[in-house]
Write a structure and sequence with these properties.
- By secondary structure, the chain is of the alpha/beta class.
- It is 32% helix and 17% strand.
- The chain has 12 helices and 11 strands.
- Strands 3-2-4-7-1-8-11-10-9 form a 9-stranded mixed sheet.
- A hairpin with a 2-residue loop joins strand 5 and strand 6.
- Helix 6 packs across helix 9 and helix 8 crosses helix 9.
C-alpha cells in the first residue's frame, strides 16, 4: 500500500451513565470498551493500540491491564476535556503511518457517585503548584476563570446574559430527545437566569451537570473496515493546540484555542466550517459553546450571541445542531467529556441517533460533522472533522 492509510472510527459506545452508584470507574471503562468492540464486530485481539487518561497511578497501564490488553502503541496524553480529541489525532496519525492497526480510546468516571459517597469533594481548583500558585491567593477557582472570560466577551462584544442562557435552553431541548440524557425537562431563559448564582455571570444552569459514566471509541486502519459490522466514519482532519496555563499568559479572554485547532482540522480535511451538518462542542459552561462556535468559524468574532439566540443549535429546526445529545449541560458530564463528543458525532453520521437524528435539508443523513474539545480553562483544544463512509 502506498501513502498513508485512511483511518476510520469503527466502534463507539457508552457505559451506563447518569447515576451509577454500584460500579467502579474501572468497571465503567470495561463496560464501554466491551460495547465498542461489539459495536465494531471485532475481538479484543484486534486491538494493538490503547489510549486512556485520568485513572490509575500509571495511566493507562493499569486500565490496559484491567481490560486484558497488551498494546504495542500507547498514549496517556492528559490535557483536560480536549484529551480525547487530541488522542484521536495521535491515534489516527499512528494508524496512518502503520504504527498501529486498531486503537481503543476509553474513559470512565464515577465523579457523581464519589462525591455522593464522600470519597471525594467537588474540586474548585486544579491545585496550588507551579504557575497556579500565583492565582490561588485571589480565590481564582476553576469556574471563576470561565466566568471572567465570559464577562470579558460581554464587555467587548455586547454579548448578553440572555444569549448565553439560550445555549442552556437549546441544549436542554436536544437532551429532551435523548433517552440517555440525565436531564430532559425543558427550561426557559427566565429559569436559567433566576437560578442560584455560582460565579458571576453564571447561574446554576449555565454550568455542566455532574454525572457518572464512560465512553469508548475504536479507530482502525482502512483494511479493517470490511471486517466490521458498522459503516465506517472516516477521520478527515485533526488539529490540536495548547494556549496557556496561567490566566496572565492568556492574551485574549475572548479567543479560545479552538481558533487554532479548528483551523488546522478544517484545512487538513479540505473542508469549510459552512459544510458541517452539526457540531459537538465541549460545554462545561454556556460560554464555551458560544466562543468555540466563533473560533471554529461558524460566525465572526463577537457575533456568537446573535448566532445562538435564533434557535440555530436545536436538532429540531436548527441551522447548525450543536451538542445533539444534550451535551455536558444536560446529558452527562463525568469529568473529561471529550470522548462523548466523538461517540455522538459518529452516531449522528451513521444515522443511529433516534429522535435526535440530524437530517440535511433534503432529508438525508449528515455527511460531515466536527467534534471540538476544550481542556482546563481554555488551556488546550483538540478538533476532529469526521465524514460518513
Amino acid at each position: 500500500m502506498t501513502g498513508p492509510r485512511k483511518v476510520a472510527v469503527v466502534g463507539v459506545a457508552l457505559s451506563d451513565c447518569g447515576r451509577v452508584d454500584d460500579a467502579t470507574a474501572y468497571a465503567l471503562h470495561a463496560q464501554a470498551a466491551r460495547r465498542a468492540l461489539a459495536d465494531a464486530g471485532l475481538g479484543r485481539e484486534a486491538v494493538d493500540g490503547f489510549a486512556s487518561a485520568g485513572l490509575g497511578t500509571l495511566a493507562p497501564v493499569e486500565v490496559a491491564e484491567y481490560l486484558g490488553l497488551r498494546p504495542t502503541w500507547v498514549d496517556s496524553t492528559s490535557v483536560g476535556g480536549s484529551t480525547w480529541e487530541v488522542m484521536a489525532a495521535h491515534a489516527a496519525d499512528a494508524i496512518a503511518a502503520g504504527r498501529a492497526r486498531a486503537v481503543l480510546l476509553v474513559y470512565g468516571s464515577t465523579a457523581r457517585a464519589d462525591v455522593k459517597a464522600g470519597r471525594r469533594t467537588g474540586n474548585l481548583s486544579f491545585g496550588a503548584g507551579g504557575p497556579l500558585q500565583f492565582e490561588v491567593p485571589y480565590g481564582h477557582t476553576l469556574i471563576a476563570k470561565y466566568a471572567m472570560a465570559a464577562r470579558r466577551h460581554m464587555i467587548e462584544h455586547g454579548t448578553t446574559i440572555e444569549q448565553l442562557a439560550e445555549v442552556a435552553v437549546q441544549t436542554r431541548a436536544n437532551a429532551a430527545l435523548n433517552p440517555e440524557a440525565m436531564f430532559r425537562t425543558p427550561v426557559t431563559v427566565d429559569e436559567v437566569l433566576s437560578g442560584p448564582m455560582i460565579a458571576d455571570p453564571f447561574t446554576k444552569l449555565h454550568c455542566c451537570i455532574r454525572s457518572d459514566g464512560g465512553a469508548a471509541v475504536l479507530l482502525a486502519a482502512e483494511e479493517y473496515v470490511r471486517d466490521c459490522r458498522t459503516r465506517p466514519v472516516w477521520v478527515l482532519g485533526t488539529g490540536e493546540h495548547v494556549s496557556h496555563a496561567a490566566m496572565s499568559q492568556w492574551e485574549d479572554f475572548t479567543v479560545s484555542p479552538a481558533a487554532v485547532s479548528g483551523g488546522l482540522a478544517f484545512r487538513r480535511a479540505g473542508v469549510r466550517p459552512s459544510e458541517m451538518d452539526f457540531a459537538e462542542i465541549y460545554d462545561a459552561f454556556t460560554y464555551m459553546t458560544l466562543v468555540t462556535l466563533e473560533d471554529l468559524g461558524f460566525c465572526a468574532k463577537g457575533e456568537g450571541g446573535a448566532f445562538v439566540e435564533k434557535g440555530r443549535l436545536r436538532v429540531a429546526g436548527g441551522a447548525l445542531p450543536v451538542n445533539t445529545d444534550g451535551g455536558g449541560l444536560s446529558a452527562q458530564h463525568p469529568g473529561m467529556r471529550g470522548l462523548f463528543l466523538l461517540v455522538e458525532a459518529v452516531r449522528q453520521l451513521r444515522g443511529e441517533a433516534g429522535d435526535r437524528q440530524v437530517r440535511r435539508a433534503d432529508g438525508g443523513l449528515p455527511e460531515l460533522g466536527v467534534a471540538s474539545g476544550t481542556g482546563g480553562w481554555f488551556c488546550s483544544s483538540g478538533t476532529v472533522v469526521l465524514g460518513r463512509g
